[in-house]
Specification:
Helix 4 packs across helix 6 and helix 5 packs across helix 6. This protein has 6 helices and 4 strands, in the order ααββββαααα. It is an alpha+beta fold. Strands 1, 2, 3 and 4 form a 4-stranded mixed β-sheet that branches. It folds into 2 domains: 86 residues, no CATH class; 54 residues. Bound molecules: zinc ion.
């Protein structure tokens, strides 16, 4: 049963890293209501527990009529992964709980995550643990 569940999980099914497109749900400029234009696209590798490892191809939008220079990023991607990071919020939460609630050592967390198709080093676990504490402080 456990093997079947593991083999039908999303990360297992997408062993070849899929490319997932993301763009803002907003189509019009909030100021002048003109259609937003594509500013650029950028791709980053993202690791999450929910989806495993994938390439997120993000399309950034901007109004070319206003001078505000506001970039409209993909909201959905920002909910999955902190900006500037490659590890999802779910990985950060997993690391934080493992270190501080279950008192696992960094190497043990590396192994637990590897079993869930997320590969990272012990030093990255330490870094994400610190991030978890910061997010927790900000949330309170
Ligand atoms: Zn505008």
């Amino acid at each position: 049963m456990e093997k079947m569940a593991r083999e039908s999980s999303v990360p297992y099914l997408f062993r070849e890293r899929p490319i997932l497109p993301f763009r803002s749900a907003r189509a019009d400029c909030p100021d002048c209501h003109a259609a937003l234009k594509v500013k650029k696209t950028q791709t980053k590798t993202v690791h999450t527990l929910a989806l495993g490892c994938f390439s997120a191809q993000e399309t950034l939008l901007q109004c070319d009529r206003c001078d505000n220079q506001i970039i409209h990023a993909a909201e959905e991607l920002n909910r999955l992964v902190p900006s500037g990071s490659t590890f999802g919020y779910d990985v950060v939460t997993f690391v934080g709980k493992a270190l501080f609630l279950r008192h696992r050592r960094a190497n043990e967390v590396v192994e637990e995550l590897r079993a869930r198709h997320v590969r990272l080093s012990a030093s990255e676990v330490g870094y994400l643990g610190k991030k978890f504490v910061i997010y927790l402080a900000l949330a309170q």
